[in-house]
Each structure stands twice: as C-alpha cells, then as structure tokens.
Amino acid sequence: MSKLSYISPDGLRVDGRRSNEIRRLNIKMGVSNRADGSAYYEQGNTKILVTVYGPRESVNSKSLYDRAVVKCEFSMSSFSTTERKQRQKGTDRQATEIQNLIKQAFESTVHVQLYPRSQIDIFVQVLQSDGGLKSASINACTLALIDAGISMKDFVCACNTSCIDGIPVLDLNNIEERSGGPDLLLSINPQLGGVISLNMDSKVQQDLFESVLDLGVKGCQKIFTILSDQVKRYSTELMSNQQQLQQS
Amino acid sequence: MTISDRGIINNHIDENYTLYFPKKSNSSGISWISKEQYLRNDITCKYIDCKKCKPYDTTGLISFNYTSSNKDKLIIIPDIKTIVEYLEIFEINTITETPICNVIILESVYRYVQYNSGQKFFERLKSLLKNSKNTSRGICFFSNELFSQTFQDRVTSDSFQMHQYRTIVKSCQWFRDHLQDDVSNIKVQLVTQDVDLQSFVSGVDKSISSITLLDYLQSRHSKNKELLNLYDSITQLLIEQKQQQQQQKDGSNTSEQFYERYLNDDILSSELKSGSLFQGKIHVNQHNRDEAFIKIQNQTVTNSDKILIIGKKNINRSVHGDSVAVQLLPESEWLPSLNVDDIDDSNLNDNDGEMKVSKLGLVPTGRVVGIVSRNWRDYVGTMEKDTNMNSSFVFIIPFDYRIPAIRVPTRNPQMFQGKRVIIRLDSWDLHSNYPTGHYVSDVGESGSLETELQSLLIEHDISLSKWSQQILESLPKSTVDEPWPIPKEEFDYRRVLKDHHTMSIDPLGSKDIDDAISVGYLDGDNLIEIGVHIADVSFFVKEGSALDIEAARRGTTIYLPDRRFDMLPAVLSEDVCSLRGGFPRCAMSTIWKIKKNSNGGYEIVDTWFGRTIIYSCAEMHYQLAQDIIDGVIVQGKDKDSDVTGGGQNAGYKNRLFQGIQISQLKKDLLTLVEVFRYLKKQRESVGALDLESIEVRFQFDKQTNQPEKIVLKKDLEIHQVVAEFMILANASVATKIHSHFPSCALLRRHPKPNPIQLESLRYLFDLCGFQYNYDSNKELAKSLHNATDKQDHYKNIILKLKAVNVISEAIYFSTGQVNVSEFYHYGLAIDKYTHFTSPIRRYADIIVHRQLWMSLGHKKVVNYDDYKMNELSNHLNHRHRASKTVQRDATELFQSMYFQWKPKDNVEAIVTDLRSNSLVVYVPEYGLRQRVYLLKNQEVNSQPMFSDDNQPVRIEINESNVVFHLKDQTKITIYIFDHVLVRIYTEQNQYHMAPIKLELTKVLTKSQHHNSAQQNRLLTDNKKNLINETKELSKLMSIDQSLSSFKSNLIADVVIDLTADEKQLLQNNSNSVYNLIKKFSVLDIKETGSKINYSHGKSKSIVNSNLSPVKNSNQDASPTILKLWSMTEKETKEYKTRSDRYLRDSITKKYIDQSNIVESDFEKISPSLSVKDKYSNVISKAENDFRKSTQMKNVKKYH
User: Fold this and answer.
1) Residues B659 and B746 in one domain
2) Could you give the count of Cα atoms lying within 13 Å of B519 in the half-sphere of its Cβ?
3) Contact criterion met (CB < 8 Å) for B60 and A10
4) Domain range for residue B143?
5) A202 at the B interface (CB within 8 A)?
6) How many folded domains does chain B comprise?
7) Which Gene Ontology cellular-component terms appear in the entry (chain B) (predicted)?
8) Using one digit for the tens of pLDDT, what is the confidence trace for B167-194?
9) Cα–Cα distance list, B88 to B53, B92, B230 (Å)
10) ipTM tops the 0.85 cut
11) What does pTM read for this prediction?
C-alpha cells in the first residue's frame, strides 16, 4: 500500500470532511441518576461518559480552607479501541496527562472560592476512542459540571488542530492523528475570551502556527455554539418537566 | 447546522456511517479498523457554467473549462483499466495538436491507483490532475465516493469488480442526468476497454454510451498522430506482456532464465533494516555498462564508501539511477582498487575521482538482489542499424551510454528509421537480456544540430513549451512606436531617482538588462549614494498568475551556446522589465549612503530598500565601461572600432541618453571602482574565494549556423566591480528579509566542503611545491592565491578548477530548514546571502523581491511558509542544476560539432589528472577537458607521438606521473601539469553525440630535455614559447627563400617543417638559444606579471601562421614576434608614443653582447621589445629572484 494521502485533490479529507469542519457531535446530559451531574458526549466515533460528584466534603484531609479542590480520574474502557486491551495496573502516562489537564482547566474556570473545604470529583470514562480524546474529554466535563449545577465563569471548549501538507486541519480523527503531524490542543473560555490551555505535540512551522491557531479558535467557537444550544435545550426541558410536575 | 437523532453535523453533510474493515497488521495477524465516513452534498460537477452547482465551489483545486475547440461537448469518464494501462495518453500535452481534454477522474479510480499501482504511478496521476489546472485541459477529479448522490454501498454478494462496475455506472448516470437538461447539450461517455464492463453497462442502463479508447481517439483526435502512435505502441506492449504471462502460466516458456529473481518486498525491507543488504542509487560506468557501483553510508563493514557491481548478472536488470538493494559478495571476490578507479568518471567535471581506496586495497563487490524503487524516465534513442524491417520488434540504443539497449515491440519498424525517438521503459523480464519499452514520440532526424539539442533537453528533463494564450494575453503591451508607459499611480509611492546618474553595464549584445548601478553625490565627494537597481519583475509577475506558475516551473533561463530558453516572455525580459537607457523604468532598489573616511576607507552609513523609478542615462557594455575608465574612450570617439575589441554597435553612439558626458561617466565609474576596491579587500580579508570556471563562447557562421570559432570569456576589472556591488546588494537584502521572515526567507548558502575531499588535492600542491592549507575559507583562498607559478599560470588555473570541483555547490534554502549557523556562504564569505539581482532570468529572485517588498511593511500579497518555501527551494535547486548540466552538455555538443568540422592538430594542452587508463588534459584554447586514452582493454593504445616502430611496450601509471617504456628501452615520463600537444578530432557515432577524441602528438620540452634538472622544467613554457617563435623566424626565412612552394595553405607542412627546424636549431645552436631563453623568460615574468596570456602560446602562433602564411611571408614578422612578449595593445601604443629609443638600444646591445645570435635575426626581434625605464632594475631583480628560487628548489630536492 502506498503512503496515505490525507487530503484528496478536491480538498477533502479521508473521511469526507473539509479541512475546517468538525465531526458530528452528539450530546446527552443527565444520563446518570446517581451522580450529581453527568454527560454523554460523542464526537465522531469518540464516545465519552463523564460523571461529576460534588462539591462535597473532602474525604481525606487535603482540603483547602478557602476553596474547593477539583479532582479528576480518567480511564479508558478496555473495549474502547478496535483491539481489546488488558487493563493496566495503576494509571498510565496518557491518563495522568489528561487528568492534570482537566484538573487545571476547571480549577481556573469553576468558582472554586464558593466551595471552601470541599472537593469536586470528575470521572471520565472513554467508551470508544477515535482521536481527539483530550478535547472531547474537556468538552464533556464542561457539560457534566453544568449538569451538576456547579458555578462556573464560562464554558471550557477545546478542540485539536493539525497541519497536513501545509494545510491547517481541524478536529483530527484517529487516522489523521497517527499521521505524525503536529497536534495542537487549544482550550478556551469562549465568552470571556481567555485561553485555558495550549498544548502542542511535535513541531509546526512558525509561519503556519498562527493560521493553525486561528482555525483552532474558530473550531472552539463552533463547538461552543453547539454546546450552549444543547445546554439551553436541556435546561428548558428540565424547566418544562418541573412545571409539569408542579402542575400535577 | 443539521440536527438529527444521531447528532449535529454541518449542513453540507448528509449522512455518516462507520466502516469496519479488517487490516493485516505486522505483529498479530488481522486487526479491525473502524473508519468514519461522511457523505456530502456539496460536491460539484466541475462544469464551469453549470447552473445547478452554483454557487461554484471555489475551494476545489481544479477549475474546469469545457469550452474547448470541440463543437459538440463531450465529457469522458475512463474506467480503472484504461487509466492504469493508458495513463500516458492522457499525459501527453502538445501545443500543436489538441490533447485529450475534458476527462473526469473518479475517486474510485484514484483510490484504486493509490492502493494498487505503486507510488510512482500514483504520483503521475496526481501531477496530471494538478497540472491540468494550469493547462486548462479540464482533467478533473470527482469525489464520487464521498458524494451522497453517487455513493454506492457495497452489496455483500458483489465481487470487488462488480462493485467497481456499479460505482462507475452510478457516477455516469449522475453526470448524464445532471448535465442532460442543461442548454449546452453535453454528452457523457464512459471510456473502457473492458468487455465485461461494456456488457454490464448495456445490461443496466442502455442510455449510457460507452466507447473504447481507440474509437474515442480516432473520432476525436484523428489528426494527432502522436497520440495514435503511442496508443499503438502501448497496445503492442500489452499484447506481448499478456502472451508472456500466458506462457509462464502454461509453463511452456523454455527460454533460458538470464537473471535471478528479486527478493520479495517483505524480506527486502527487513534485510535492509537489519543492515545485511545495502541500499543505494546505482551508478553505471559510462564507458562500460557492465560496471556499476553504489555509494553507501555505512563504511564500517566494507572500509570503503562504494560497492562495485561487476557484470550483467550481478547488476541484475537494474538501470542507471534505480535505487537498489545490494548484497555483498564474499571477500575472495573483491577487487583490487586499481582496476576500478575510473568508474566514477561519468561526470568528469562534477566530482573528479575521489575514489577512496580501502585500507585493505580491496574494493567490495556485490550483486543486486532487489529493487527499492525504479527511477526510469524518458530516454532518447536511435534504432540499431541493420534491423530487419519485418521483425515484430526493434532494438533502440539510448543516447545515454549508461542505459542498455531497449527492446520495443512494434508493427512498423520503418517508423524508427533514421530518427531519434523517445522511449519509455516498462519492464525487464527475467528471461530477457534487454528491458522492454514502448515508443512515445520522435524528436527528429538524427544527426542534425536541432535534433541533438532537443535530445539533450529531453535527456535532462527540461520541457519547454510555448507560452500559453492565457499568459500572452496577460502581458503588458509595448511596441517601438508606443513604449509601455509607467502607470501614473506608480509615481505616488515610488522614489523617483532623477538626482542619480544611472547606468547599466552588461555583456555586449545582451537585451535583458536586469541590473543598473547609480551614483549620487550628496555632500561633494565625501558622502555619496550608490544604488543598485534591479528590474521590478515582481511588479509585472503577480503572485499566483498563470505566468507566475509557468515561470516557477521553468525556474531559470537556460542559456545554450546558440540560443536561450527564457523564463519570462520576451516582452517582459527584453522590453518592459529590461532597464533600458532612455526610458523611465520601474525598479526595486537598494541604495547605500557611503561615507568616505579620513583614512581613505569607506563606510556604509545607511541602507535604503524600496521601489523606484529610474532614468538610465548610459546603457554600456563591459568593454566600453572599462575603456572609459582607462581613458581609451573620450568624448567624441563614438565609433564602434574605437572600443577595444570592437564589435557591432560597440561604440557609445546609441548608448548615452539625457545628454550625459563621457567625463561625467568616467568620474562616476572611477568612484565605483574606488569603492569596489575597498569592499573587495575587506571581503577577501575575511576569506572570500576567487574561483575560476571555464566559460566558453561560440561564434557562429551566419549562413550555416555551424559553430565556427570557440572563444574563451575574458575578465576585466569592471566585471568584478559590477559583481561586487551585486554581491553587496544580495547580502543586504538577505539580511533584511531574514529579519522579517525568520523561518521562511529564501536564502542561498554555500556549505563548507568536505575536508577529506579538500585533502585529496594536497598531492597536487605538493607536486608544485606550494603551501596548502584549507582549515578555513580564508586559508584556502590564500593557498590558492599563492599557488601561482610565474612561469606557468595555468597551474594556478588548474588548481582553482580542481578546488571548484571539490567544493560543493551553493544551494537555495528556506531559513526554517537550516540552523542559523549554517547560513554561511563559504565561497563569498558572507553570513547571509541570497539572489536578488537577476529576476528576469531566475525565479528565486522574484520570490526574494516579493519578500523584500513585504518586509518593508507593505501589504501581504501571499502567505509564505517554510513548507512551501522548502518545496520551492528544492525545485529551484533542481532546475538550476539541470540547466547547468544541459549547458555543459550543449557546450560539449557544440565542441564536438566544431571538431567534427575542423579537427585540430598540435593543440597545446596541460595534463591535469591521471587515470588508470588515461590522462585528463585541459586544452585552454578551447576550454576543453578531455581524456587521452593510453590503454585500451589493458593494451597500449598507440599514440601519434611515437613513431610506428618505436611504440611504448608498457605504460606505468603512478600517482603523479606516467612512464612510457618504449621499445628501444628509453623512457618518457609525463607529470601532472606538463604541457603536451594533442590532436583533436571526433569519432563517428550514429547513436550518440560524436565523442571528442584526443591523441598525444608530442610532449613538450620534457622530451627534449630529459636530463635537465627540475628547475629547468619551470622554464618549459617560456622556452617553448621562444623556441616556437624562433622556429617561426627561421621558418619565415625559409619561406622567403621558397615562397613559391608555399602558395597553398598547407597546414601539415608547416607543422612538420617547424619541428624539423626546431630539432635543427636545438642541435646546432642549443647553447646560445638556451641562454636567450633564460634571459627572455626572466624578462617575461616581470613584463606581464600574472597576466601571461597563453592563448598566444605555441599553438596559437601555429594557427596564425596557418591562416596567413602568405601574409607572413611578406617579411611582416613583427606581429608574431610581438606575441613573444605578450604585450597588450595598450602597452604597444604607449611604447610607440614614448619611443624610448635610447634605452631600447642600450638593452638591445646588451643582449647582442651576451648571445651569439646572428645580427640580422635579432633586428627582427628588437623593434618590438617593449622596454621601459623600469626594466633595467627589474631585469636584475628578476634574475636574482630566479637564482634564489632555483637554489631553493635544489635545497628542497636534496632534503
């Protein structure tokens, strides 16, 4: 087999998207009754379930007197990739990285000072993985935290971009991720306009960087519009349910 | 935004599904891959006027133009097989005939090729699609598998082939329906050779018309013979291949298997990784196709950087240039290095024999066991003579010696008769001695200059088509009556340079003037402005225009001896862009403010860049400028013949504008020269190299267009002045654009040479007794500078030439690719350098202009990035190299033609190299470097130098000399740097360029002065010079006596007579002549310094005497004798005006006293002695020096 070409002469990518299109998004909030907040998030074939517990009293005495602590646990289901993997003991490098990423992202966005001496637990479970795990996890966490009714300054929207053959490309899938090109993860507060994290694997040319970053920002904004739409729909649904309950 | 129960997708996407398919993985059998696919609804039909597909998708890569010459509009959709087998037919794009156009390449076809036909073939298809954008042929890509309306889901019961059929039919149906009700009446046809598909189509949908490629070609392109011929030859080939396959299947193939089968790919790649096989590009010996080698990186195993592959069996069907995998043979079969050291000479001028001998003295040998990638291109060839006209195939012998004969199946061998044809290789069967190929097109009748040049271009992969209509229309208009005016708005932002004196200095007769220099005086002479103005090509060539793309593809203007291939159309290069005198012109300028320091030095206080409008007031050529500086040309002397050397339109009559005076020009030029001297000194002090290369020019016979005369380029100081300012401009611009585009500026660097290769020159320096040091460029420059032998200035030239060969080429690069520390330009000793000054003939300069303009804070025209810039720089480097090699080969072709018409006898040459079977000599008169074969198949090759009964029995070739053992027990030794006489002629060759052959006719002086000591050798050339002149004299006297016998132009006679005379002279009068020689040679040193002009040496004088023996016979001996002193005409004039008779006489007397030469003879010499006051001192000093040097030599020798 010859080398894959990631962009066809028509400018279409391997899965038929254009370079500035994101994959199909499918969102459900409040999927788990037991947790304080939960969300199911699909981006293409990447499927993630996030549950949030808290804010609740710290189990061990690592609590801070003036603010809440965000804790995150990330795990991949053994069936999430095409080949079933034996679960490893302890946490692997990728999981630790994503945990720290999420922890830092949300400690800065959640109004932690409102919940002193307490902790917020986020559990991320990957059901199926097809690229863009980090960005999908962050987006899913935002939804779950909203569902849990935790006070936040803004959404956190994340998106990964890359650059294939000199063309900036948005939202990579698994095949594109493995092309070995640069992988730029950007998460922003779309309304406040701040960058939460910017993380890049492998190199991108200096002159291209700006256009790649621009595309990333656009992608995040797009994701934000979708997420906020869904959140509004979900909350009106809840409201109407409540009204129905009250009426009955 | 579309919202469905499956999620949110944007509204260009109709549906998505997930594919699960198995994939074989390396480690554990089969793994499953899931792949998400989206089906779109925004794929357009690519028809430019389609009403339904509006808005037209502008992000698509291909613009589509159906409005071709065809009256009824037809779109063809080829199927997989047609593309795989006949892609070449689609690739052909000639200007004269309409090529195949309006083709839809389906994504299914594209994907099939991608996964099944190999990288190379896929690249061809890709570039076909990409190029059609520029040629408006309308070959375009249709993503049928991603389009919801043409997507065909695979029915599980269908075979793969059936699925393909369905897919193709569905797309055809869609196109038909889509375009049917359009007013323009467009027909869609499926092109297929496949009978199954045809029947399938008619079974499914009768309204889809299918057609075979042959029918299509005959109906549409019946005039285009080239297409039909190509179709024919491919079909023949396919039939033959099918037969062979059939035979193999039946097992009926009884023919012997010549070659070993290649290893299969998996084994090959794992073996290569493990290091048990070596990978490399195969280089075939030009002189012996059975010898080849590969260069390898890892030298630990073999102790050598090469592996030799000897013999057809071992080369195993690989062709020069292929990337092959090689297995080492056992050490017992390794070869001693001596047999093989000339394998590398395929490029005599490129990397001269740096064959590294392994420590064991053995060179490893190997055999090819696999092909990593074929690197076949188009080959020009000629049919083997005496071919049977009834056979079903012919053998084509390629132009390139390194390519084996190619078997071409054909029905019509007559077609190849007497022609040079282009052949493409297809395969090389195990059972065949020759590779199989097919005919592509023909170049022309073999033997004619035009055809040979065309062949050369094709061999070097240079395709130059005419300018397309689209480009020609976009050009600015300019005629003689109505010159192109500068638009008014240009005056708003450009600096108008009326206060400068602007002049251009170019070679005589050049029309594309891309640089001009201007001088402005700000504060008297202390603060001056010097500007370098470059034609503003980037103003005319807009980024991304058709012209821009074509210029980028060409990369550079190619200069061949009799023509050139422009990078830009003539309107631009010769008129609108060219900085001609008398017209206002747009320019891109660099202007320095230069302050004169109190200590005489200069200082650049300010550099200004920007666009300007200039008014050139003098359109000079080099010689004219030099003459103005030297004061030869003054106001009023405007005739062509006043200029040194003369030439058509050489005078300044039509070259000055705006009433400028010569005196003013002279002042400006002198200012430039003064600044130049200072700049050069500075640059040399940090290590700039001054390297020479041979540049040859031809003079053509006007009627026959055959090369008539070969001239070497001359170098004047003004050349250097212009060059120096260009270098300064380039360096300034490089710094500027690099500061603004840190990672994508297009610069030029010159890497440091490999010390091992530099070390390989040491023995040459040692041989002449020069110091050699190459640690830095400064020291190398010093070594080269000091390596001048005052008696033989060729030594210096040759050493420099050798150094040029060793030092690597300068290359373009994008600054993002290389570390800043490697930007250095080794040759020029400049930290950052680029090409800025010749945008008319180099594309790189256009890019640099754009970058410079953007770096000045102007609107961003285009986004440059490192990736693109790197691609571009690689492309430009490639073009540059190709143009250089084609230039070299074309020069060789012309030389070959020249010597075919006019074989030369007794031309002086210098031995520069020794090879295992030959000498390499340099013929300065013609700028020729060629080999003289001494051995032929280990046998001694007879040379006319030796008489028939005294041929050498054995030839011994050492590191620095060759020893001929003659029959009569005497030995003759030739050292490197020895001067010899050679005969130049060409050998008839039907298949190739007629090779230039050299034969030794004489070894100069060494043969006469066997016993003379080493120091005498230094005098050789002057001696020889003198001997010749003396010969001439005596000859002339004899001519006087026998004038009647000399009426006809008898070249050979003169030569023979002269040698006879020479012998006589030596025998009779050796002592006195020797004395004279000694004196004269010493004089000669000082007289002309380093500027000894050797073209006035022996050979020339013989030629002179050949040309005008009758004239010479009229006692007019002085011109030839003048040459003895190598006096320039200037000196002669000076001498004449002064007429320092007294001094001359006194010195003449001195000589008469010292030598016993006949009085009458001497009188002929004396009038032309250019003796000035200084000589009395100088002579004695020179004598002292000489004595010292000989003593030194002796001392050295004894140590």
Assistant:
1) no
2) 26
3) yes
4) 12-223
5) no
6) 7
7) cytoplasmic exosome (RNase complex); nuclear exosome (RNase complex)
8) 998 888 888 888 776 566 677 888 888 8
9) 31, 6, 8
10) yes
11) 0.60
